[in-house]
Amino acid sequence: MGSGKWEVGSGKWKWEVRTGIWTWNLALRALEEIFAGKFGRGFMREEGKIYQNNESNIILTIKQGVNVHMHDTPNLLLITEIPGYAPQISRLMSMMNYARFTTLRSVEGLTTEQLDYTIDATSNSIGSLLLHFAAVEVAYQLETFEHRHLNEEEMKIWGAALELGDQGRAEIKGNNLDYYLNIMSEVRSKTYEVFKRKTDDWLYEEYPFWQNQPANHYFMWYHVFEDEINHRGQIRWMRKRLPV
Predict the structure, then answer these.
(1) What is residue 144's DSSP assignment?
(2) C-alpha 43: how far from its chain's center?
(3) What are 156-160's contacts with CB under 8 Å, separation 24+?
(4) Band of the pLDDT at 74, cuts 50, 70, 90?
């Protein structure tokens, strides 16, 4: 799953899961249910037909050849419990899900040229900000799951996206929208897989953090999506000023 896509089938009919909000396991379960014929109206290979899995709140649109897309879910606007996760972790995820949903909406349809565009010599491109979201999440995975910083090899992968600035402008360009969304999705999938094994007590564990001030894991993961919301405002501002 390193490519950020999961495809099953062969010949004329292929099925690809693109995870914008939900996890790989939920998407995989939905696909399994499609092939097992567990949806109420059964499984038909009709282009554009929509199936809904009520248990996991996933809606899939089937299109010939390539796509099984995630769509809005009935619980998107609810901060509530999510099956398989502790109550407070579920609420944290609910907020992360909505923040990510609005991010995805803000970049719909952007071309590679638009993703690479910078307002001036000191600004960041929309593409670099999308990769920054993934890099920040990786950094907090390591901080909260392993209690360490990125090592030298990891910094080679994520350093430009974390630091942005001159390095980001030099290195992060020439990629289409799917490139960024697939990376973001893959990183988010790993986060949610680990969240399954965490308790609410883990969220409230405290230790010295910024400027040696006490912080808990709840705050750290709040900061992950708070940072995304902050930069999403920049993305919306920049999109209105794109010359292409």
Answers:
(1) I
(2) 28
(3) 158/134, 160/128
(4) low
